[in-house]
């Protein structure tokens, strides 16, 4: 009898806790927002998400925000790439961060992820290198996480894949700096010397944020699932992209 009573009390407490949570979330919807990233509004389907699912969604939203910043910087440094694609920077950014049209897919020969990053930095490629490079990084993350939109309780995360994603971003950053044509000119200008003679390290900081973002989530998943990440030590100059 005591066991039954305790179970009933436990269910009542659980229902009360859920009710308070719903009230709190509903109240948050009306709270004013200030500058920066907009707050995520509560949706009923969020009840089918765990804390780690919500963290995964935030991680990938931030991933896309960093990629948009990277694409904007690359277009400003390499305006000739716009003539190969959308023709106007804002239109090109919307295209990269949305769903690529058939024109871009044809240029990319249906490639995604690391294959698309490699294509963007191939000397003979005649398409928009910025769009291909940035969308390659975007789709690489979608492959590693299994999606880039929403996650639910039934979804699982592989911390090793996400760790490899972070290493692939390191490799992509090195290849971006190193890719040259036959005459030795950079295929895409990024890190360089500014008008005052100082090294422009903003690209390195941005890539560092991307790498840290996924390294952190990989460790969160590993700790929560009691799984171990196998660390890899190799020079990026001789490294190939990890399969995801």
Overview of the structural elements:
The protein is mostly helical. 57% of the residues lie in helices and 2% in strands. It contains eight helices and two strands. It has helices at residues 2-29, 51-77, 89-97, 102-108, 113-120, 129-145, 159-178, 202-225; strands at residues 192-193, 199-200. The chain has a two-stranded antiparallel sheet. The longest helix is centred in the N-terminal third of the chain and has 28 residues, at 2-29. It starts with a helix and ends in a 19-residue tail after the last helix. The relative contact order is 0.12. Mean pLDDT is 81; it is low at 1-37.
Radius of gyration: 22 Å
Q: Widest sheet: strand order?
A: 1-2
- For the report, how would you describe the main beta sheet? 2 strands, antiparallel
The number of domains is 1
Relative strand content: under 5%
Element order, helices and strands? HHHHHHHEEH
How many E-type strands?
A: 2
Low-confidence stretches: 1-37
Which percent range fits the helix content?
Answer: 55-70%
- Shape summary: globular
Helical region count? 8
Overall average residue pLDDT: 81
Between the first and last Cα atoms, what is the distance in angstroms? 53 Å
Which class of secondary structure composition applies to the elements? Answer: mainly alpha
Summary tags:
mainly alpha, 244 residues, 8 helices, 57% helix, two-stranded antiparallel sheet, disordered N terminus
């Amino acid at each position: 009898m005591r066991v039954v009573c305790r179970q009933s009390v436990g269910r009542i407490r659980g229902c009360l806790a859920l009710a308070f949570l719903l009230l709190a979330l509903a109240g948050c919807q009306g709270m004013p927002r200030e500058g920066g990233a907009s707050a995520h509004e509560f949706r009923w389907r969020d009840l089918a998400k765990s804390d780690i699912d919500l963290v995964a969604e935030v991680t990938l939203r931030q991933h896309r925000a960093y990629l948009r910043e990277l694409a904007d910087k690359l277009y400003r440094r390499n305006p000739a790439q716009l003539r190969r694609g959308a023709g106007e920077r804002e239109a090109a950014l919307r295209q990269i961060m949305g769903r690529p049209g058939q024109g871009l897919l044809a240029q990319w020969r249906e490639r995604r992820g690391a294959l698309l990053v490699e294509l963007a930095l191939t000397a003979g490629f005649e398409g928009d290198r910025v769009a291909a490079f940035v969308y390659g990084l975007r789709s690489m993350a979608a492959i590693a996480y299994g999606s880039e939109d929403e996650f639910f309780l039934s979804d699982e995360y592989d911390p090793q894949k996400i760790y490899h994603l972070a290493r692939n971003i390191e490799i992509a950053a090195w290849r971006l700096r190193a890719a040259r044509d036959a005459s030795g000119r950079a295929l895409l200008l990024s890190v360089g010397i500014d008008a005052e003679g100082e090294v422009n390290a903003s690209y390195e900081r941005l890539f560092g944020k991307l790498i840290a973002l996924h390294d952190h989530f990989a460790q969160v998943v590993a700790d929560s699932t009691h799984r171990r990440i196998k660390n890899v030590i190799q020079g990026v100059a001789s490294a190939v992209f990890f399969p995801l």
